[in-house]
Amino acid sequence: MLDILRDNWLYLLVGQYPDGPLGGLALTLILAAVSLALALPGGVLLALARVSPAKALRIPATAFIWLVRGLPLIMVIFWAYFLVPIVLGMAVPGYVTMIYALAFFTAAYLAEIIRAGIEAVPRGQVEAARAIGLSRGQTLRRVVLPQALRNVIPSLVNQFVSLTKDTSLAFIVGINELTYAASQISNRLLDRPAEIYGLVAIFYFIICWSLTAWSRRLERKLAWGR
Amino acid sequence: MDFGFLLTAEYRDAIVAGLVVTLELSALAAIIAAVLGIILAVARMAPFAPARWLSAAYIEFIRNTPLLVQLLFWYFGAPQLLPQVWLEWLYDRNFEFAAGLAGLACYTAAFVAEDVRSGIRNVARGQMEAARACGLGYLGAMRLVILPQALRTMVPALVNQLLNLTKNSSLAMAIGVAELMYQVREVESRTFRTFEAFAAATAIYLALSLVITLFAAWRERGRPQPHARHPA
Fold it and tell me: Can you list the domains of chain A with their CATH numbers?
């Protein structure tokens, strides 16, 4: 296994970069980070719509969340590959489509996490904010959301872990991230797939497990602050 | 948009065959994952340190690596690791299905184990102490006293894992298991009716989620709510 690592570590980390397109673990992390950055505002808006008293907001948001959470991610990815070029009216590179798919998928999961965070903020906070003259919007922005988001930070980190694992599905649509890079090496070496996929699993494990450990520490720290 | 073509014998049979494979794969993986998950959870809390370490290492490693990589490992890596006789036996049957089943069951078991563990924790400590004081061993106390109480409180979490498993089974298409997603893609590439084929798959997956959720709610109906941990 070590000789595979010695011969291929650079390819697994960055793909053919700088002589070719960026790939490998770097692309995996970029896919995950950009998708999360896009999904976060989407998730907040969906969560707000989901708890909104206005039916016109609540029902579509609830339906969207239920729909996306009921589907396998690969189904969402296939839909994205079909719909994104139609909606945008032009061809888009594969990794961009992948980011759209991951962001949509993750937004639905984040929305439920953030909703739980909003509902966990004591009602007295809203009443007190309204009583000192803050408008509804100000109450939400300055009182409810800061507390809600702070409480869900560990869950957000866990969602990032799931997202990092989920980027491996880009392999199925042929994007040269870590899993795809592993399959390329496996095709080249032919007779050593167990070692290569084991090695790549260790790559994922190092990233995901450190993040999980970080989220557990955050959870303890937040519990202290209360 | 015309869904009629999906009802012609050729395409309808392909999709139904795919659905059957999805159901078989999910059901078998669920059974294996439940058994393995309970064993892992019991080992994770055993009064014997090496059992705890092994179980914890398994759970952490599996939960923090992608299912797809694990499936690729089982499918491509197993031939490198298993004895020739086993491989021939598997190749005579359905090697893809076996690899998919192994991957899904091992992956889901790690998640089930964590749910079972928190279920066991919610059973009052005194139960274990009393069972041990009555002369039962650790495993006997787990099997006869703790698990029967813990499993009842875990139903919602386990149903959630079953939903995840059913959705996750779609990844087996990547190693050539002819399940629902695989068959729908076949139909799509033969007919170029992408929208209709994907819409059919979407409807089937949502219906599966709905059936599992409703079935669980129906089973739970009228049962006394499991009570929270007793004060010590």
Answer: 2-225 (1.10.3720.10)
